[in-house]
Design brief:
The complex is a heterodimer of chains A (about 475) and B (about 500). Helix content of chain A is about 75%, strand content about 0%. The two termini of chain A are about 25 Å apart. In chain B, strand 1 and strand 2 form a beta hairpin. Classes of the chains: A mainly alpha (about 475), B mainly alpha (about 500). At the A-B interface, helix 16, helix 17 and helix 19 of A face helix 5, helix 6 and helix 7 of B.
Chain lengths: ~475, ~500
Amino acid sequence: MRHELLLIAAALLVLMVEIFSDPGKKRRLSMFSIILFGAVTIAGFLPSPTGHLFGGMYLSSGTTLIMKNILNIGALLVFIQSVTWLKKDENSEKISEYFLLLISTLVGMNFMISAGHFLIFYIGIELATIPIAALSAYDRYKNKSAEAGIKLILSSALSSGILLYGLSMIYGTTGTLYFSEVAVHFSNNSLQILGFIFFFAGMAFKISIIPFHLWTADVYEGSPVNITSYLSVISKGAAVFILIIILFTVFPVIITTWQKTIFVTSILTMTVGNLFAIRQKNLKRFLAFSSISQAGYIFLGLIGGNQTGMASVIYYILVYIFSNLGAFGVVIAISNATGKENIDDYNGLYHTNPKLSLVMILALFSLAGIPPVAGFFGKFFLFTAAAQEGFYLLVLIAVLNTIISLYYYLLVVKAMFITKSETPIESFKSDFSTRFALGICIAGIVVTGFASIIFEVIRNLSFGV
Amino acid sequence: MDILSLFVVIPFLTITAILLLKDTHQVRLVSALGMGLQLLMAGVLVFLYLSARHAGNTDEMLFVKDYVWFKSLNIHYAVGADGISVAMITLTSLVVFAGIFASWEVEYLRKEFFISLILLASGVFGFFISIDLFTMFLFYELAVIPMYLLIGIWGTGPKEYSAMKLTLMLMGGSALLLVGLLGIYFNSSPDGTQFTFNILEISKVVIPIDAQRIFFPLTFVGFGVLGALFPFHTWSPDGHASAPTAVSMLHAGVLMKLGGYGAFRVAIFLMPEAAHELSWIFIILTSISVIYGAFGAIAQKDLKYINAYSSVSHCGLVLFAVLMMNQTAMNGAIIQMISHGLMTALFFALIGMLYGRTHTRMIYEMGGLMKVIPFLSVCYVIAGLASLGLPGLSGFVAEMTIFVGAFQHPELFYRIVTILAVSSIVITAVYILRVVAILLLGPTTNKHFEHLPDAKWFEKISVVTLIGSVAAIGLAPYWLSSMIGTSLQPVIEKIVAINPF
């Protein structure tokens, strides 16, 4: 329980410090919260006992620990990137709320990942969703932000309802909600499969799988950019983690059913996500659709049901955190300095802001899966996992989709490096926190691929069906 | 540090050195030094290789180094070289060296240009030294992105369109290749031991024939896209025409040979049974490449497009010969790779120099240049004669070996196809001699071009290096062909087991 307890303690500390601090000194709160969270992240890496609590409702294993640590790293990066934005006048009153709400969602995600019982899983997923809806509406003076918040809360309420309905069917047919016991009593009858489908639909909503993705573009566009990056990376990553654990431990009996489901949804997701991303001009929407198609690739790791599959999914989420936060980091930096968010505004960026352009190009190549950055290794391992079980056709469709995705990523590269512009974005120097966060992302992108130890450690902690 | 990994380390050190430079004038010098060192290393490698073979070392691959990288998937960083790789490495070093000098006058973003160029070269070197499929694929894809930037930023004409088309089509090839490689990997141990990506180990195993029938076309077409296999060659004319000089030299000269080399080393070496069964389909496609490419070149008016189609035709001939699957033809294919690589690099360098002077590539706008720039014109004529296969230059050696080898095949189908492909020699002569006549001979047609400067010192280095190599292979091919011949032995043994004749 160490991760959860530390996070709750951190949240409470932030609240205490905010209550007892002078109104004028609010801005130091962000620094304090980040250092605190950094300490929590590092403490998470120390060896932790594994086992179960509350009679098997809460499970802790090497696998869940590494998942939580990866989410912590991602959240830390999001926090560091938010510092500049939080310094703005309209946000300086709400700094502690920001950290409090985000840490709460993280607590929810941690419980969700460690769940051994469907109720803890459900509590976790709700705790992970509701505070984010509040955060999506953070910009009180923008209509789009409020719209994003409402869309998110209403659609996630509906999907949670459907998820719960599925869980109730599972309870009705097996008589238990403990993961281990459901796995034993599960069989192929139609009501249970229906329950599984509703459960899958609820999870697919969180992961933005087609056809449950319709909330994604509008919410990502309306929310403040930092929340968008959090949603696209951490929220999605946590949902994928718990999905893979539940599929491999609770539903191995119906493996052929969920393999077929994943086959169809992953092809739809990759293709539709890619085709829509081509047409986007706003970078936030562009990255939203690109992250939808990334979820499609991640499903390729799920489909095999083997150890390489789980390892490649966890590894890819780590790589994806670094790449996507790198890309979002550049978007955030430019948005904070100039408020511009369209691809056309980025024309000629290399001449004025070469370092930012280089960060962006590395992040985009990692997302596209081009060597030598880590995204190549991540994608290769996902494809290997799927090919291991013979899904060569799926791999072929996935690599063809990689080409389509390369096209739209190159559109941004073209704007930055090739297209000349009369009015490029002027050079500006980002402050320390942005540069630090981008530096960590770049280090992650470059090193995670070549340092094979990271993948080996993850693989040792993974398991198959 | 083993000698083969140096070929990847030296370019990276050169790039780091360039990054640290403040003064753009020194960038060219550093690049030239770096790639000159690389050329020297290639020479040392040839010498070491030949002495090792002379001393009686008969291992399949020499200078082998193997480091475990991802233990769970049995991915290694494994390098090794045999005669063919050594020849290809030498070719690459020569072309890159000549390319640096051909780009001496690039002004716009000079640092970035040379960095991208050397990064591209390092991807190619890495490909030739690898004997582990994963490492090979990594270096293969590494070459794609610098390509996009080089053509898109420093190119001419419809450069964004050409760059995008080229990048996406080549990625399409690597997409197919990835599926093929995974298929080979998962079929690499029929007896249940761990799967492997190592080429030598896979070649000892017979991959099940059903798997071969699926993965051979994927792998072959995957490499074929890069090797200008009809109908996947369409990236080539626009790509070469829009690219800056050094990039065209490197691309047509070396990158297209990656396709031929890969098709030979991976597709045919590891899956010879399927290659034998399905070769007829691809032979038809490659002969179309050869003949259609040559006809296409006749119709062009832009010098670079002529050369691009000519490259399609000659690279098609490489794949054609490799599919014939006998000793002579394969020997010819490798010589053709090297000969055409040098020749086309020479052509593109000369076209670049002409363009720098006349600012046009249309042949009808220039004329009678022999009187104005005699050095460059004579070099152009020599390049042209090499391309059409004049004895004494390398083109003749390669083409003769290929056609003799191809005709050795006893079946009628192969012989007919060979006769059709031989006709390409005549067609090549047509477009080469026509261009030489219009461009260089006769009276000067355009008044503006009557006082053009002849070759400068750096251009002379670039051109003379390449002509020297072409002539060396043409006049004394035995050293090259014996080096290749011994390395072909393992491949031939595998193939002869299937189809002895």
